[in-house]
Design goal:
Strand order of the largest sheet: 1-2
Oligomer: single chain
Number of domains: 2
Helix content: over 70%
Number of helices: 5
CATH superfamily of the largest domain: Winged helix-like DNA-binding domain superfamily/Winged helix DNA-binding domain
CATH topology of the largest domain: Arc Repressor Mutant, subunit A
Radius of gyration: 24 Å
Shape: elongated
């Protein structure tokens, strides 16, 4: 009989541990989401401050703008990634941030998102 009680307690502990593990995983996912939001907000503040102070753009952003100006054509994340030898996701982040800052115009053509250099008057207004 004691053996059955012992087995039952072990099963209850395993069940409790499984639930605890699930809750910890959910908490870790929530922490990741919060961290991402904080990092995005930090970057927005940095860029907002740079625009207000007319500070020079970071090197990857300068390089991307230079490439787009010289290309004189529409650019997507894949072509920028290949040109700058960076990941496609990083290229996409750079393009979207430059768009938010007013340096680039963004268009969607079917499933592809393309960017082009904004007119000088649009850049000075942002």
């Amino acid at each position: 009989m004691n053996c059955l009680n012992f087995e039952k307690e072990i099963q209850e502990l395993k069940h409790w541990a499984k639930n605890l593990e699930k809750k910890l995983f959910e908490m870790m996912e929530e922490i990741k989401k919060i961290r991402t939001m904080l990092e995005e907000e930090r970057e927005k503040r940095i860029f907002r401050g740079m625009k207000e102070r007319k500070t020079e753009l970071p090197w990857p952003y300068q390089k991307a703008l230079s490439y787009i100006k010289k290309a004189k054509r529409n650019i997507n994340a894949r072509s920028l990634a290949e040109a700058l030898e960076i990941s496609r996701s990083r290229a996409s982040e750079i393009l979207n941030e430059l768009h938010r800052m007013g340096y680039l115009e963004k268009q969607r053509k079917k499933r592809m998102v393309i960017f082009k250099y904004a007119e000088e008057e649009n850049i000075s207004q942002t």
